[in-house]
Design brief:
195 residues, mainly alpha, two-stranded parallel sheet, 8 helices, 5% strand
């Protein structure tokens, strides 16, 4: 874990299991992240849903997550700011979902590479910065004409996959064809007596 977690600004977790608890404890005790504003916080989340456990949950989130974010990084955690962040997040999810639907076409207007780059951007960039670009990209994709011929026809893609298949896969196909219920590993090694 040494040196690989300097990109983190905080470590937040819940009391889920001993392994998770120890991992968070190591972050704190071993100073795995040496940023001056880095903090580790542990929330005790109730597992039952009642009015008083909901109150406890809200207090834990305020005390263990929102207040430290405000103290350490100056993040606005007011109700209005949180609602705006949720609204932006939901819009990003909606746009990415629409782009994913465009990928389902026989000859999609967006390549797999383009979609995955946009998906990665949606995970890593602040929503308020990328929303205008995502909106513009979606508008462009809706107007974009697909290529006359896909770069990788579906049959070609399947053939390539078939070429990479292991002997175990071929044995499984043989089992399906013959209706045999013999395990795959045994199928690779013929029975004695030529069966």
């Amino acid at each position: 874990m040494e040196g690989g977690y300097q990109f983190l600004d905080a470590m937040m977790g819940v009391d889920a299991c001993s392994m998770m608890n120890r991992a968070m404890e190591h972050f704190e005790l071993l100073n795995i992240n040496d940023k001056p504003s880095f903090f580790v916080t542990h929330c005790d989340i109730p597992y039952k849903i009642t009015d008083y456990t909901l109150d406890s949950y809200v207090k834990q989130m305020r005390r263990r997550v929102l207040d430290p974010l405000t103290e350490k990084y100056g993040v606005d955690t007011s109700d209005a700011a949180i609602r705006k962040a949720v609204e932006e997040h939901n819009e990003v999810c909606s746009i990415v979902s629409e782009m994913a639907e465009l990928r389902k076409a026989e000859n999609p207007v967006i390549t797999g590479y383009e979609f995955h780059v946009l998906n990665l951007v949606s995970f890593t960039c602040p929503k308020y910065l990328i929303l205008p670009y995502l909106r513009e990209t979606l508008k462009e994709l809706k107007k974009r004409k697909p290529d006359k011929k896909p770069a990788f026809p579906r049959a070609c893609r399947h053939r390539r996959l078939r070429d990479r298949r292991s002997p175990a896969h071929e044995a499984y196909r043989g089992l399906r064809r013959t209706g045999s219920v013999r395990p795959i590993l045994l199928r690779l090694h013929p029975r004695s007596g030529g069966h």
